[in-house]
Design goal:
Blueprint lengths: L1 H22 E3 L6 E4 L8 E6 L3 E7 L4 E6 L18 E7 L6 E7 L2 E6 L12 E5 L5 E7 L9 E9 L15 H5 L4 H10 L2 E13 L4 E14 L12 E8 L7 E12 L2 E4 L5 H13 L11
Parallel strand pairs: 2-4, 3-5
Antiparallel strand pairs: 1-2, 4-11, 5-10, 6-9, 6-11, 7-8, 7-10, 12-13, 12-15, 13-14, 15-16
């Protein structure tokens, strides 16, 4: 009888340990975290550390608080327009449309700034929020559960991305550096660097331009005549000469449909293409040929 009781106790302890571990799990690559407030003490703060350039966090039944530090495996030197070094790292968070049960703060050198509030059911979808970190700055994300009387299911969930080479051209936050800088045409040096470092490099034409009210962005529908490179399947079609895709940019830039062939470059941001440099193709060709003759091209591209 004593042996059975001991076995029963050990089984319950193993089950409890397994249940507790299942409430808070890191992904194998340390990029994402999923956990539950049911295992947290009231008023406690759980420390979390993620080590990737992108990932997700899902906090079920929020209770207490989470403090999240992001330590991505990025190059030590950030590359800006024209190859300049700044050391600046930009992070963006995209809350889920059902973000509920907590508030998300940016903690910078001990000072909290609200990024995302606890949503009401009737509230519009939360916006992407971005912030930057300089070398030596202490930055973290702080999630604080909001008190509720009922025990209905709530999930505070968001995706994050960090980059060392984003500029104001990709800013979705309410405070971009300036629309003037974001919409400024790239110079030849920036164009040639963009060809080498962008997530996508595509030759094509503008078929139409529409507005994305949620993102306050313009959606450029592109007919791609040649896809030089793409990180994801952004431009797809039955053949290489009939690919189609969408590229987003700031509304302030005032992009309009019109004739002509362009070289579109840019970054992938939460699965969507965002515009970087987009010179007319003939202007890119001219800059590329001159730079190649002077042996000043940062990388090769098979131009027509």
């Amino acid at each position: 009888m004593a042996a059975f009781a001991l076995w029963n106790y050990a089984s319950w302890m193993l089950l409890l340990a397994t249940f507790h571990a299942s409430l808070a799990n890191y992904s194998e690559d340390q990029c994402s975290w999923r956990g539950s407030g049911l295992s947290q003490q009231k008023g406690s703060v759980e420390q979390i550390s993620l080590h990737c350039a992108e990932g997700t966090l899902d906090w079920l039944y929020p209770k207490g608080a989470l403090r999240l530090t992001l330590s991505p495996r990025l190059p030590s030197v950030a590359v800006g327009p024209g190859g300049s070094s700044s050391g600046l790292i930009t992070a963006c968070v995209k809350p889920s449309e059902q973000f509920h049960g907590a508030q998300l703060y940016l903690e910078r050198d001990g000072v909290l700034e609200l990024l995302v509030g606890d949503r009401l059911e009737s509230s519009p979808p939360p916006r992407v929020r971005c912030f930057s970190r300089l070398p030596g700055e202490r930055v973290a994300l702080f999630l604080q559960a909001t008190p509720h009387q009922d025990i209905s299911r709530r999930i505070a969930s968001f995706r994050y991305e960090l980059r060392g080479d984003w500029t104001a051209r990709l800013s979705l936050d309410s405070n971009p550096i300036s629309s003037e800088d974001a919409c400024r045409p790239c110079n030849n040096t920036e164009i040639l660097m963009a060809v080498c470092t962008s997530d996508f490099v595509v030759r094509g034409n503008i078929r139409s331009v529409e507005e994305d009210e949620n993102l306050r962005a313009a959606v450029i529908r592109v007919g791609a005549t040649r896809v030089f490179r793409q990180k994801y399947a952004l431009f797809t079609g039955s053949s290489r000469i009939s690919s189609q895709g969408e590229i987003r940019t700031l509304l302030q830039c005032g992009v309009k449909p019109g004739p002509g062939s362009f070289l579109f470059t840019g970054r992938v941001h939460f699965g969507e293409a965002w515009l970087g440099c987009a010179p007319r193709y003939k202007d890119f060709q001219r800059a590329y040929v001159l730079a190649k003759a002077a042996q000043q091209i940062p990388c090769e591209l098979p131009v027509d």
